[in-house]
Amino acid sequence: MSAIDEGKMTDEHRRILVVDDEPQITRVLRTTLSAQGYDIRVANDGEMALELMKNWTPHVVITDLAMPNLDGVGLCRQVRQMSQVPIIVLSVRGQDRAKVEALDAGADDYVTKPFSMNELLARIRAQLRRTPAAEQQPSAITAGDFSIDLDARSVKVAGNEVHLTPKEFDLLVYLARRPGKVVTHRTLLAAIWGPNSVEQPEYLRVFVGQLRKKIEIDPSSPKYLLTEPWVGYRFESGL
Question: Topology of 7-134 in CATH?
Fold first, then answer.
């Protein structure tokens, strides 16, 4: 298939790899996603998933965390060594540590079991939309009623310029370049303040609070910088 043909593909032709050792989950996902027109393959653990990916390239990987042989965290690490394919993690309540490890290992999003199929479908569509955009590095980011000029290092909200400190700007850009993706505390701290700061989450609380006061209409009810409790933050366009 040519690059042009690949670019013209609709969501109905997209390939999704489902990795889970629970037959009921894989059966439901295969049936529902196939009915939406997706090309589905199923693996019972991470090792089988990697074997499948040698000869079949998915557009999205959906993986459970707790699996035999190679779990979801290990799968995320190994997939990231060879591909930037979007990874959505399925987790149960109480798996916060494993969920954070998976996100740090390269997962893009997570859905908590029991989950709404409509929510999962929306997350899949969002990842498919973002994949081409993630390959580009634009000089400006526009989201809702505010915009970021990366070259001038300036931010405008509703047409009015907002003055940010260098760290506030870097934090905002890092999140805005990953719209809809959950970014963990450790990842943000390492990216903005360096690897020696990963155990100092108070930096994030202070700077996110400052950013919200400057770019959110209602900082107490943000629509751009969203908190993922115990995990990290997510940037949404507000559209």
Answer: Rossmann fold (3.40.50)
Residue type, 195: P
Residue range 12-70, pLDDT digits in tens: 478 999 999 999 999 999 999 999 999 999 999 999 999 888 888 899 999 999 898 89
Is 141 within 8 Å of 104 (Cβ atoms)?
Answer: no
Q: What is the mean pLDDT of the chain?
A: 84
* The two structure tokens encoding residue 156: 């405008």
Separation of alpha carbons 86 and 109, rounded Å: 8
Please give the model's pTM, rounded to 2 decimal places.
Answer: 0.64
The domain made up of 140-235 has a fold known as Arc Repressor Mutant, subunit A (1.10.10)
Amino acid, single-letter form, for residue 232: G
Rounded Cα distance between 139 and 120, Å, is 31
Q: Is the pLDDT of residue 211 over 90?
A: yes
Locate CATH 3.40.50.2300 in the chain. Answer: 7-134
Residues in the chain, overall count: 239
